Amino acid sequence: MLRLRNRYFFFLDIIFLSLMPILALALRLDGFVQLQRYARPLLLFVMVFASLKLIVFLLGGLYSRYWRYASIEELVLILELMGVAGVVELVVFFMMPRLAQALPRSLPFLDILLVVPAITLPRFSVRLLARRRDRRVHGQRVLIIGAGDAGQLLAREMRQNPTLGLDLVGFIDDDVQKQGLQLRGVPILGGRQRIAEVVRDYKIQQVVIAIPSAPGRIIRSIVDACNAIGVKQRILPGFDELLNSDVSLRRLRSVRINDLLRRDPVQTDIVAVEKLLRGRRVLVTGGGGSIGSELCRQIWRCHPAELILLGHGENSIFGIYHELREIGPDVGARSGETVGLRPVIADIRFPERLHAVFNHYRPQIVFHAAAHKHVPLMEMNPAEAITNNVLGTRNILAASLAAGVEHFVMISTDKAVNPTSIMGASKRAAELLVHSAAKKSGHSYVAVRFGNVLGSRGSVVLTFQRQIANGGPVTVTHPEMRRFFMTIPEAVQLVLQASVLGTGGEVFLLDMGEPVKIVDLAQDLIELSGLRLGEDIEITFTGMRPGEKLFEELFVNGERYEPTRHEKIFIAANASQLVPDKLDRTIDALERAARRNDKEAIFLGLRHLIPEFQPVGESVVGNGRAESQMNDGNAPTATRSIPEVSHSRPT
After folding, report:
1. Residue 402 CA to its chain's centroid (Å)
2. How far is it, in rounded angstroms, from Cα 450 to Cα 554?
3. Residues 6 or more apart from 587 whose CB is under 8 A from it?
4. Domain boundaries 137-260, CATH class
5. Domain ranges for the chain
6. Fold that domain 270-455+485-513+554-647 belongs to in CATH
7. Would residue 263 be called left, alpha or beta, if left means φ above 0 and alpha means ψ between -120 and 50 degrees?
8. 225-240: per-residue pLDDT in tens?
């Protein structure tokens, strides 16, 4: 039965379509005794109407279906075709007076009622028998955590693909109204507190976490429960990673650190963002970097008229260019529009090159993500921090002003707040340049600050993973070191949202949640690797590196922070009022110092421009300025809690 093909169903249909009129007439006459006197008209009825039904079935595509996976769609098709065939049969029957007078007039109606189950049951029996056979195939016993939309989609895929070797045993869901019920014939066995019991009792070999909307604390509790009993886990990524809500088994992966730090999904005003970007010429600097490439991906989905990928590294630009090309031009533009995807290799430190690029492409919106970001490296190479982060930003702004760019968004960092490093100070100087350009242009030129991003090329996570792979030890600079973390897609979503909110000269601060202890991050990564801290691998403390703080602060003295209409974005609307009159002269002096690689002059110039710049070793790190600002009522309420460690001296 499982290997029946459509030609076999065709012959079965001929048999059933021939027999059903006879059975229908027998039912009408209460037996087969009187059938002989209707033999000739009944034979004509069978020949005419069996042929008509077969023609309707052929034209309707009934014999081009794969019945192994028959579903409600196939059932609807059968009913639709039988409806058409039934109408044709009734019309033709009553257009043949000799036939209508020789046979009972109820015969066509009875025939139609009998034919429907006669052609439906054999086809759907193929699916039923296949499912029964699949249940006898022993695969890896799987428990799905989450009996929602994602869980049921995974369950359906497991049932439809027995060759995957996944034997779905049950669901776990915290919704008490679901517990004790069945989803796709699979029982919902209880809430999270029963994970260990269910795994033992049902001999579960793999747990699948199918809750894309769950925050990190929920994922952590599930992972901890699974680790405690030694069962393998796989997870469906969060919605920020699921492109177009693509829920399928191929998206399952091992649990990562960003799953444990996952927060509530970002609610982006997609309509407003797409309205800003659709049909516009958009340029992204640092387009091949971690943030820049994700900006390009999300901008590309908003249908720009042209997307210019500007970067210094040819390999990274080559990668994102071909990635976006493979998505297809229909994603980047509406039907009938011409879309341009333009890879440009250029160094932002060369103003003439930038002016040529801007004059050629005439961008209307610029996202400036190009920057040096490694704190210790910039401490050792301060001239590079100035020429790239400061002078490069000045060059981009000058080209933007000359080309009439309407919207400019610079990606900044929390390290720009009360900086203790060259990198942080250089980004603060870049912010001041953006504010100055906003005054000159009268357009929306803004900066967006956020913390570390998980998965970026310079992320501490990659360092820890490499150390774990090498057998350790995992090195942490200080036991009290804390940082804010966001996922790259989440950060970029909020950057795009901030670009809609800006009018000019503002600094936007992203709500980065609670800071994470770096040592806790290291321990989580060790456990996710299946190792035990203290037995399989060690954590060692190496001391703070040049330019580092124990804790990144959020607020600059004098900036007034207010909420925006987006709950995760705050604004310092008066940021442009804090631009010093000496900005241009000091930047020129910094340029001269960088050209001659004069480190002392660079430090002095930054201190002159940014009075709050206090290199580590000169003063207390995190000296309470943030707390005093929070207490004056100007800080956003969602980010007011600063751990005690922010008031400690580095040791």
Report:
1. 36
2. 9
3. 390, 391, 394, 429, 433, 609
4. alpha beta
5. 6-133, 137-260, 270-455+485-513+554-647
6. Rossmann fold (3.40.50)
7. beta
8. 888 888 888 888 876 5
